[in-house]
Amino acid sequence: MYKFPKDSKLNNPEFIFGVATASYQIEGATNVDERCDSIWDTFCATPGMVYKQHNGDVACNHYNLYEQDVDLIASLNVDAYRLSIAWPRIIKEDGGVNQKGLDFYDRLITALEKKNITVMATLYHWDLPQYLEDKGGWLNRETAVKFAEYAGVVSQYFGDRISFYVTLNEPWCSAFHGYRYGIHAPGIADEASGFLACHNLLLAHGMAMPILRKNAKKSQHGIVLNFTPNYPVDESSIEAAQFADDEHTHWFIKPLMEGKYPSSVFQHFNNYMPIIEDNDMAIISEKIDFLGVNFYSRSMVTNGRQGKVSDTILKKLERAEIRILESDDVLEDETKAEQLQKLMNQKESHYLSVELQEVERTHIGWEVHPEALLKLLTDLNSIYKLPPVYITENGAAVDDHIVDGVVDDEQRYRYYQNHLLMVHEAIKMGVDVRGYFAWSLMDNFEWAEGYKMRFGIVYVDYETQERTLKQSAIKFQEFLGARKKGLL
Ligand code: FCB
What we know:
Layout: E1 16-20, H1 23-26, H2 39-44, H3 62-75, E2 80-84, H4 87-90, H5 99-114, E3 118-124, H6 130-133, H7 142-158, E4 164-169, H8 171-180, H9 191-215, E5 220-227, E6 230-232, H10 238-258, H11 263-268, H12 280-284, E7 290-295, E8 299-301, H13 311-326, H14 333-348, H15 371-383, E9 389-393, H16 410-428, E10 433-439, E11 458-461, E12 466-469, H17 471-484
Parallel strand pairs: 1-2, 1-10, 2-3, 3-4, 4-5, 5-7, 6-8, 7-9, 9-10
Antiparallel strand pairs: 11-12
Bound molecules: beta-D-fucopyranose.
């Protein structure tokens, strides 16, 4: 089982342990109960965009299997479950509320309540209704207003039954992968669009905050950001790494904490900056009760063209290129050429990526470097006045196989043990980390990587929908079981 020093906060039941998922990645049942299409349904249907053109139509069929999945969650002895609510299930195209969508989450939350599991719900984990994308999506300021209305509907209905409301999951991914690099839905590759989408997403968050507070007074309200800290490969690259952090980290956290965008990035990308209206920064910097931190890896930066990074993005772009090249579906030649050209432009505007040799990587190619989590947490804590922090995602993709009913995911449980130790250290060094959610409860639809990448602590056989606890899950079960019994 996982092990921490005797006096560690992690051994104390006050520190929340949970598992996380997201609606489009697990639910399936995309065509039932009047769910509307999301941008991911459209993106998946576009040849070349997603590995083997996989999609979320069935995924883990969680929409139908939620009861057994809640039993599974409870069996892990976790305190909390981080799920996401699908906007396309809740608000219809005519603006009306879809009661059947609310009913599903009601059934799910009721099942969790029966097992005494705390609910953290993300309102936007990337599944924007397609009807809003048709009007510009996150490039349209009106989408922020629509988000606040949707947040109002959910929070009025569920109130304090959801203990933690997360407005957005990783606006960096929604804005930059979705509208700047074009490798996630809706697949737009344009600098100005990336920054505009970001601003409108942050506005959406800020506009929703007072509504959530009013409707769910006893709940905590916050946002989840992803962090991939940038490290210089040598001394000549220090400035470049700092700039990359400004662009990819501080661009998102600084406006939330201080009501300002980093000026270095603003100047550098001057031509691409969105129009910021008078009250916008005050709306965005509305106080939050907690910050969710998603962490997987770090990124190596060389002193090249300033402004765009990173190893991780570059790898994703390369995989996207292969997907397009290998796509067997009838894709008009011109579209294929256009898509490749788009990727080429993206790649050329990046730093030359440095492939560190002899470092450990997970199946998805991300370097394993737990110390970067400790440095990230202590750095953020010294730069900003942080609210309480929850690690809302952390985990590893492993090429898992079942052998005689056992999935020995040694790399994953080592990854968890070593990253959790860093959380322990960070707390000792004064960072107020209150909880940790493993990504993910079970294998699921990994966006552009389809079902190829397995991040679950529970193995999913997609043919039979059978779930099998991997060794990493059994270790959570044992550790949290012992903790519950006061044995640590
Ligand atoms: C994060 C996403 C999550 C999952 C992990 C691996 O960026 O929030 O949905 O795909 O990466």
